[in-house]
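Troubleshooting: if your tokenizer reports a length mismatch, compare your output against this known-good record of 541 residues.
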Amino acid sequence: MMDTPKRRKRQQPRSRSGCLECRQHHQKCDERRPTCGLCQVRGRSCQYGLRISWGGRPFRKSTFGHCMSSGSKNRLPIIQIQSTQTDTTDARPKHKSAFVYGVAPTSKPYKADSASVVASLIEARPQHVPLRATIEPIKTLQAVTAPPSLFPDLPPAYRSLLDYFTHVLNSFCCDESVKKDFCKTFLPIALDTSHVMASVLNLAAVHRVTAGLPQCTKQLALLRVVSVEQLRSQLDLTSGPPTEATMATILMLCYSEVVSGGERSYSWRLHLEGAASLLSRALSVWKLDSGDSTKRFIARCFVSLVSLANMSVSPPTALVSNLAVQIVGEKGPDPHVDSFTAYSTALFPVFHEFGDLVRARREDAGNVNIPERALRLMQQLELLNTNAAHRDSDFVAPAQSQEYGKVNEAYHHAAILQIQQRLLAVPATTKRLQETLRVLLGILSSVELTNEPCPGVVLFFPTFAAGCAATLSTDRNRVRDILKAMMERYRLANVEHGINVLEKLWSMEKTGIRGLCWENMTGESESMDQAPSADMSRSER
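Known-good structure output:
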């Protein structure tokens, strides 16, 4: 009987997990990465991936595949999966025909619903948002099973910054409703305008730096350059009334300079000057009583910044200050404790008058009787303070009404100290001045600081004014403790600068230097010149 011939064993069986080229030619692949042996010998491109069929046909020949071919107008970009063992030194071009499952977001911007975006960001209040110390180029590959992003064109690192922005608002919002107004005003504009988005992210990045969190300096510089350059280009294109996007960008840049401590001494005031110049083109629509909620809130931000600038070491120009008065209106709102600033609206004209007197003193205006006007201003303040104790604001939540009352009273006493020291040159050791200081320190110590929006976030001005008037070590320690608690909780660089300047001032007084003047000591070039301050006229002790 003849022997049955044995079937010859196939030398190169099919490879089901090899590279695409070996599988296409039904060749045995040794599956070496990044280039298998056969591909290396034959000098061809070697790729690993998945072959997808569609409707029983090879994907490239299917209807769906045809839509994604290079000849189609609706072609979608394909992301190729790289091997975990890829050798980055292999610079040979990849095979263009290989399809790997996964698509990148298209270049068309995704228009998210503004209300849903704002609501989701308000609800998410991250205490610490992880962010790499160095931001590398971001690949925006999204998994097919992942939920769609509200910002598909925004790289993940910048989405983290946008989330962090809501945390930054806790550092200078007195109330949760004010924080929501910030989000509802600025975020929808940022979704539609790139320079507004860049300025919002810039504010978040600046705060990360002051908080000591990892933040790429190149990314921070890029955000600032983009926001400023695009804003400049937009202003070059038009000479008409300012848009909401233009004003939003300027205010975000101004807040960024305040949060950073003012590395450029006049940067935040320059932003106010620019904002005032633009607002003057169409002042009638930018009012505190405007029917447009967005314009109304932007005007509110501008007025509050000008108000505090008038109490700083270098008040803004008369143009800026007078424009803010026009925005408020001649009569202004009925006096009440404003939830935005935490002090009475009746204080705004007082701060405006104070700024005028400081400018007149600096310009040596002989036609202005500064002492007489300063005394009238003090009497007005004392009357307002007495009345404030009997009025509860209808605009403040009952739970925080008491805290608002404390902060409002603190601002009144701080303004009195400023008038006495800077306009009337009253020595710090004067009994009446020290009595005002004791009352102010008692109020400041009783205000609660929390991680959530609270009136305590605006205590820097009255606390710094108290530090300028403090002569005893016990009083200075109380000021130091309050400012350090604010710095620890809110991480604002201007607070840290305030501590450093007070320490310098106090140490100089210990050496026996008399008659110190805050304004002369710092000079106009100092970065801390943005901090509210007092003329430090001291008497012999």
